Amino acid sequence: MTDVTDGVLHTLFHSEQGGHEQVVLCQDRASGLKAVIAIHNTALGPALGGTRFYPYATEEEAVADALNLARGMSYKNAMAGLDHGGGKAVIIGDPETIKSEELLLAYGRFVASLGGRYVTACDVGTYVADMDVVARECRWTTGRSPENGGAGDSSVLTAFGVYQGMRASAQYVWGDPSLRGRRVGIAGVGKVGHHLVEHLVSEGAEVFVTDVREDAVRRITERHAGVTAVADTEALIRIENLDIYAPCALGGALNDDSVPVLTAKVVCGAANNQLAHPGVEKDLADRGILYAPDYVVNAGGVIQVADELHGFDFERCKAKAAKIYDTTLAIFARAKADGIPPAAAADRIAEQRMAEARRAR
């Protein structure tokens, strides 16, 4: 146990945590902060990944989510061609009720105590303004506002990357990258989902949306008269002749209940960890549903925050995010050549890059 300012920090090592290099449990009683920082792999460079602020039911659930998300970031950063490993942090609690400047500053001190092994950014429940506060205590913070030397909202390029992944999927399945006339269902129209709607509407896709927040759906349908609101995800995935399903909320959307009834021919969305458990990727393949690996197509945001560390240039980042189209097609080709699902093909490519970096070091 190591004291960090007025907080408490406890580190668990990979021998206890299934291959992760470091897992940090953080507590600051004065502010009410309870957080987990997970560092999965630093072979390619310092771990990079966002901070999720969420009301987990238990601390065990929070740790499990941090571990899964950190591992996903290792693969995402490797496939995006970044010189960063994978890490993730979760803050336990409802951000609507417990988030405060004091809490965010305490969290920043914990991140700073790692000395640059972990670089943080925004995620579910955290925003640019929050990163500005964290950065007051920690220089290893990205996703800040332009006024504070940052790049601003990373959801813009995240959505752009998912859009490129959809175009690549359409090219592979239908022989044409155009999404005009395609029926696309989006589950979750928050920070990323609403930008994705803009791309699809602009191209002439037929868009269906759902979200647990009625106000989020209302904003979309009021802005775009042609977008159709659907009651819930259960109804969305059963829409007749749906072409593409885009999970853009929390993980686990593809599971033993949803896959058998899914009508879409393609799954391509922004949510992390969409596969509820190992084997779901094979279930999708057996049903003839093409899965664009989530950590590949949603990498636009991490491309942006990584660029911020070196002096942000939006057009340079957008050009890098546009390459998600080529990367996605390469994964589909590798999957076909090896006779494996795309998720397994993406893992193989990412693991190869990490292993080569580890050998080089």
Automatic annotation (TrEMBL):
Enzyme Commission number(s) of this protein: 1.4.1.23
Keyword Transcription: no
GO molecular function terms noted in the UniProt entry: nucleotide binding; valine dehydrogenase (NAD+) activity
Keyword Electron transport listed: no
Chain ranges of the Glutamate/phenylalanine/leucine/valine/L-tryptophan dehydrogenase C-terminal domain: 152-359
CDD domains: NAD_bind_Leu_Phe_Val_DH
Main location: cytoplasm
Sections of the chain in a coiled coil: none
Compartment(s): Cytoplasm
Origin: domain of life: Bacteria
Recorded family membership: Belongs to the Glu/Leu/Phe/Val dehydrogenases family.
Protein name as annotated: Valine dehydrogenase
UniProt source species: Streptomyces davaonensis (strain DSM 101723 / JCM 4913 / KCC S-0913 / 768)
Encoding gene per record: vdh
